[in-house]
Design brief:
This protein is about 40% helix and about 15% strand. The protein is an alpha+beta fold. The protein folds into two domains: about 90 residues; about 130 residues, no CATH class. α3 crosses α4. It starts with 12 loop residues before the first strand and ends with a helix.
Length: about 270
Amino acid sequence: MSAWGLTILEKLQAATATRPVRELGARKGTVVQVALWTANRRESGYLKFLDLEGIVREALCWALARYLRLPMPQAYYVSANPNDLPGTKSGNPHNLAFGLEETGLPLQRIENRRAVEDRLENWKFALQCGVFDEWIANRDRIPNNLLFFGRNEFVLIDHDDALPAHVSIESHSNSEILRRLGENMTESKRQDLRQQAGYFFKRIQRLDWERIRLMVAHENVPEIKQDMFSRHIEFLQQRASLLPIIVSLSLGIRQVGLDLDNEIREKKEGYI
């Protein structure tokens, strides 16, 4: 148990939203701050209006991040009728949105890329987050999709650009966090950083996929079906064994020539 109260027994919750507090700027779609009503309580949170595929990617990445104990707020499948939310438009015919709770912490976006990067070296989850982003093929982390709340601490948000259909299992995503951690380091230090990531590789490779499926399922949200996650899960399972190589590339380790290329090719052929 951490300060975030993370346990692997959590799952996405169902909620409804009726009145927006305010509309927030977003690069994709509409994000609205609202009151979320669950079966047991009222929460303040944020809605993102996406198509069902976008909600599936957000939900899966949320479950993976929480299972791996990365800092991310509680997520919700939110029933939100646009008629009750003036000025908004649903991203799908089911009036379903993806929601995150407002944590109560003084979170803020940092639009200045350098300001984020300067704090990353002292963030205890930086290496894990960089590996996680490579695994889910997320190229959109800095500066917009980390919220800062002081003391060199961040919270992960927004994964609708992760798991793109065009990415192959062996391609590296040039994680901005890994690039920042590895720059200005000697080759030996980069190798050390990769070694430090070893335990996180093992956690990913030993992940309980049945638990993940339980975390993203909800009996009151029939629009989100289990088979909608299957393609992404298969991609992630195959990609997990290649992570040490992919992360080496993103850290800028020079010893990623023919030997590593051959290893990637051999492992990829094993999936065909």
